[in-house]
């Protein structure tokens, strides 16, 4: 059973930076497509950034140029480097793993809180 554990969330001032980490266990990490989602209070969960098993990345328009997703297959980790943080980035950030086949299984972490405030 795949398990995902996020870390790195914190309170940060506007303009600051954070790096989120997600540790994967329970299967072969390198074959999974990975992603970071976020959910702010009263809003739907949204995709922030994704990275395929082959390393192709995509980003929400709202974070392009500020956030970078990366993965380390040897360490079974995916990262989200967040720079130039804004108050509207405040949310619970969730790690996501998808087995990249039709109707492949999908897994979620429990989330880590990011708060951007002065």
Describe the structure.
This protein is mostly beta strands and 118 residues long. 0% of the residues lie in helices and 50% in strands. It has no helices and 11 strands. The protein has strands at 3-7, 11-12, 18-25, 33-39, 46-51, 57-59, 67-72, 77-82, 91-98, 106-108, 112-116. Strands 2, 4, 5, 6, 9, 10 and 11 form a 7-stranded mixed beta sheet that branches. Strand 4 (33-39) and strand 5 (46-51) form a beta hairpin. It is globular, with a radius of gyration of 14 Å. The mean pLDDT is 96.
Q: In percent terms, what proportion of residues is strand?
A: over 45%
Estimated structural class: mainly beta
What profile does the largest beta sheet have?
Answer: 7 strands, mixed
Summarize model confidence as the mean pLDDT: 96
Outline the low-pLDDT stretches. Answer: none
Which word captures the global form?
globular
* Cα gyration radius (Å): 14 Å
Distance between the termini: 40 Å
The topology string of helices and strands comes to EEEEEEEEEEE
Percent of residues in helical segments? under 10%
Treating each run of at least 4 consecutive H or I residues as one helix, how many helices? Answer: 0
SSE layout:
Elements: E1 3-7, E2 11-12, E3 18-25, E4 33-39, E5 46-51, E6 57-59, E7 67-72, E8 77-82, E9 91-98, E10 106-108, E11 112-116
Parallel strand pairs: 2-11
Antiparallel strand pairs: 1-3, 3-8, 4-5, 4-9, 5-6, 7-8, 9-10, 9-11
